[in-house]
């Protein structure tokens, strides 16, 4: 047996112990549990008290982290080693946060590369905001459209939505889906003379993005003349030849390196729309918040390291308790796309079935992640989480101070979030349900009939992350927390969290099916061929 196997076995044994997974009794036994299992970094409080973690479980998970050398993987990542083994690349999104560390990606001075691309971005943003960079008709830009998909869309779109307030420099719009209904819905809201278009694509070959970019370039050309369109375009990409071929002048191309993974790229030029819409200062503060979490991640001891603890909890839930989904519920409307961002960040990173060396994994990997803002989620899928047969851990994200002048609304929002966490953990026993119905005066037969339906099993885990306020720094720290959790889980599970081969097959098949839809060529797969025939009949 290797050192790793006994560490796994120790964790698994705790999972088989009587009472493992219980939460209510832990809460009852220790009134200080919230203090013991509350952890702070970068202004965030992470409360793990409403989980079934115990001192023994945590110790075993931290021993497993040592056996799996999670800290070693983290440090190799920070040293710019090729931790993305299948693509032979570093994963150096930490360098984008522009800390003082001498970041290197292999032989490259990554810190210098980041400084240069940030300086170019900053110059452009200031030029647009001051009006020295204008559209072809001399008008100032008021709107920015960022065309991109996946990592070139979800992060920036989520952040801009979270941070934008009336009066900020520009309005940002995001165009991702190749479904042209998205463009047709956006188009009438835009004045081409005042619209700046960013084509955000790391590879600059993504079919959806290039299709939309051609549509929007055509719209600019029609409205302003083909020669004027380039004045309204910029590219955010690592593929300089392709941006030039698309007709974007080199000084309008904001680059980044291949060691920035798509789902980790909002801190790079891919985040240009954030800086344009919310201001350069906000973007710098966002980087600063992430940097604070980075420093914590790189230096805090395991036992108080928030990303590592969050990852360890996920191992406990997924591998020991067999919980294969997790819900993310930000109780803040401005974070309405936060779950969408985490869906990509976590599921694209951790949806793997072979180890870094290509052998089948011996255990479950990434859970299904989904979510919606609260309180809306309460009136939707939380029924299943309270009373369904599947146990689904929840991440609550709460913001203490709102930016609106309606304290009553905010108190109602927070009371609901806290009530959900309490209800999930404590539940309501059948005896409690019966007593309550009796107090309400229900006849005994009704009490008997409804008791099973009004019983809540409890012992359903949740994590609460509290932000003092939602601002660029706290949001940067929050996102970085999850990024680092993902890296830790890659190490725990010995999978590559930085590649995404799973998206390739569908891409290849789509290009084979396109001719069948265009001219009736027979698709290779009979089910596809039958559906193509029916679609063509209806068109
Ligand atoms: O930025 P791009 O090269 O256009 O890629 C956009 C997205 O598409 C790919 O298929 C991957 O699934 C994502 O990781 C990536 O973020």
Automatic annotation (TrEMBL):
<comment type="pathway">
    <text>Carbohydrate biosynthesis; gluconeogenesis.</text>
</comment>
<dbReference type="GO" id="GO:0004347">
    <property type="term" value="F:glucose-6-phosphate isomerase activity"/>
</dbReference>
<keyword id="KW-0963">Cytoplasm</keyword>
<dbReference type="InterPro" id="IPR001672">
    <property type="entry name" value="G6P_Isomerase"/>
</dbReference>
<dbReference type="Pfam" id="PF00342">
    <property type="entry name" value="PGI"/>
</dbReference>
<keyword id="KW-0324">Glycolysis</keyword>
<dbReference type="InterPro" id="IPR018189">
    <property type="entry name" value="Phosphoglucose_isomerase_CS"/>
</dbReference>
<feature type="active site" description="Proton donor">
    <location>
        <position position="348"/>
    </location>
</feature>
<comment type="similarity">
    <text>Belongs to the GPI family.</text>
</comment>
<feature type="active site">
    <location>
        <position position="507"/>
    </location>
</feature>
<dbReference type="InterPro" id="IPR035482">
    <property type="entry name" value="SIS_PGI_2"/>
</dbReference>
<keyword id="KW-0312">Gluconeogenesis</keyword>
<dbReference type="InterPro" id="IPR046348">
    <property type="entry name" value="SIS_dom_sf"/>
</dbReference>
<feature type="active site">
    <location>
        <position position="379"/>
    </location>
</feature>
<comment type="function">
    <text>Catalyzes the reversible isomerization of glucose-6-phosphate to fructose-6-phosphate.</text>
</comment>
<protein>
    <recommendedName>
        <fullName>Glucose-6-phosphate isomerase</fullName>
        <ecNumber>5.3.1.9</ecNumber>
    </recommendedName>
</protein>
<dbReference type="InterPro" id="IPR023096">
    <property type="entry name" value="G6P_Isomerase_C"/>
</dbReference>
<dbReference type="InterPro" id="IPR035476">
    <property type="entry name" value="SIS_PGI_1"/>
</dbReference>
<keyword id="KW-0413">Isomerase</keyword>
<comment type="pathway">
    <text>Carbohydrate degradation; glycolysis; D-glyceraldehyde 3-phosphate and glycerone phosphate from D-glucose: step 2/4.</text>
</comment>
